[in-house]
Amino acid sequence: MREIVGQAAGQIWHLLANSTEPVNITDIPKRTKLTAQIAYQGLGWLAREDKIEYIQKGRSILVSLR
Predict the structure, then answer these.
(1) Could you read off the pLDDT of 43-66 as tens digits, one per residue?
(2) Mutual orientation of helices 36-48 and 2-17 as an angle, nearest 10°?
(3) Most buried in the list 6, 41, 43, 51, measured by CB within 10 Å?
(4) Per-residue buried b or exposed e for 38-58, using 16+ beta carbons within 10 Å of the residue's own CB
């Protein structure tokens, strides 16, 4: 399972690296074709490594690379 979450974190990192603006966290599973559960675990992995930044915009939460 750790390998799956690590690969998901890599996919998310690439998505964010290729994005010109922050991405809504609810769009990440759709854009990476990951299940929501695995995508959010991948986000947690990146957050733990201090690689991403969360941005509150109204009721939305956006994420970008640091």
Answers:
(1) 999 999 999 999 999 999 999 999
(2) 80
(3) 43
(4) bbbbbbebbeeeeebeeeeee
CA 51 to chain centre: 10
DSSP string, 2-57: HHHHHHHHHHHHHHHHT-SS-EEGGGHHHHHT--HHHHHHHHHHHHHTT-EEEEEE
Q: Which residue is associated with the tokens 């990440």?
A: 28
Residue-wise pLDDT for 4-20, tens only, equals 999 999 999 999 999 99
Whether the full predicted model's pTM is greater than 0.85, yes or no, is yes
Element (H, E) at 60: strand 60-65
CA distance 39 to 7: 10
Instruction: Tokens 């990146």: give the residue.
Output: 46
